[in-house]
Design a protein that fits this description.
The chain is an alpha/beta fold. It is 51% helix and 9% strand. Helix 12 links the parallel strand 5 and strand 6. Helix 1 packs parallel to helix 2 and helix 6 packs across helix 8. Bound molecules: fe (ii) ion. The site of fe (ii) ion has 6 residues, from helix 7.
């Protein structure tokens, strides 16, 4: 089933840049050996691909009928995260959660979240089949759109996912997209990605990763979770505040030379003095691109 879907995708998407990376379920993924999970994931992924292969004027974000098992995973993670958020979420995130209402007992629809976000900030979400290239992903951010997976992690390991899933996208990112300053930062990096050289793209990717994905931020003398990987990740959030990870001040020069692996729990983090400081630093750095 997976193989057949991939072959069809190759034919359908030869002209389509956004789908240039095909879905991969690595052999060490918790769901790799579960045929039901793979089948379900293919169903959801196929809908995302249909979205991108449909003409822009006719695209509609697909609705997913989540199963009771999938809703249970969402509920479990939601409860665990709420305890972590109380202690460690930054104030922007807490404000965002008050503005945009996320269900705790069922997986929300991207279409519903888009309606809310359009009303609040104009930012939008589009479905995606999985990881795409850094340039494609960031260029969409430059347009005020984030590509979001709609499938959920395997039920056997609800506390950590080796890849983005809807828990990461929605719990981690969505509440932040009510804030114009957060959208401006995403757009700044995304617009720079459009014309960046390969080396500059690598720098932008690491700046994005260690801030919007995994950044910590100082608030009134206390370190708080700022990045989506922390706000939407039980393991990574717990680790970041455990005292057992390497935590350094965020500097452009340090961050751009620090590699990462998205599939594993993160071993080190960078602390941002403030969102305004971060925006100015990245803006000045991008201005230096030739
Ligand atoms: Fe993310």
């Amino acid at each position: 089933m997976v193989g057949i879907v991939r072959e069809n995708l190759l034919q359908d998407t030869q002209q389509n840049l956004i789908l240039s990376t095909l879905p991969i379920l690595d052999l060490d993924h918790p769901g790799a050996n579960d045929p039901d999970y793979r089948r379900r994931r293919d169903e959801i992924v196929t809908k995302a691909i249909t979205f991108h292969t449909t003409g822009p004027s006719q695209r509609v974000v697909p609705l997913i009928e989540y199963t009771s098992k999938e809703n249970e995973v969402w509920h479990h993670v939601s409860q665990k995260l709420s305890t972590l958020h109380e202690k460690w979420a930054c104030s922007l995130y807490k404000e965002g959660r008050k503005i945009i209402n996320l269900p705790t007992d069922r997986v929300p629809q991207l279409r519903d979240l888009n309606r809310e976000l359009m009303r609040i900030s104009g930012f939008q979400l589009e479905p995606i089949h999985g990881l795409v290239s850094a340039r494609e992903f960031m260029m969409k951010l430059g347009e005020g759109i984030m590509l979001c997976t709609q499938y959920i992690r395997h039920h056997s390991k609800p506390e950590f996912s080796p890849e983005p899933d809807i828990i990461h996208e929605v719990f981690g990112h969505v509440p932040m997209f009510v804030h114009p300053k957060i959208i401006a930062l995403n757009r700044l990096i995304g617009q720079a990605a459009r014309t960046a050289t390969e080396e500059q793209l690598l720098w932008l990717n690491r700046l994005y990763w260690y801030s919007i994905e995994y950044g910590l931020i100082m608030e009134q003398g206390e370190m708080k979770a700022f990045g989506a990987g922390l706000l939407g990740g039980i393991k990574d959030c717990t680790n970041a505040f455990s005292g057992n990870c390497v935590i350094k001040p965020f500097t452009i020069q340090e961050v751009i030379k620090t590699d990462y692996n998205y599939s594993f729990e993160q071993p080190h983090f960078f602390v941002i003095p403030s969102l305004e400081w971060l925006h100015t630093e990245i803006e000045n750095f991008i201005k230096s691109f030739t």
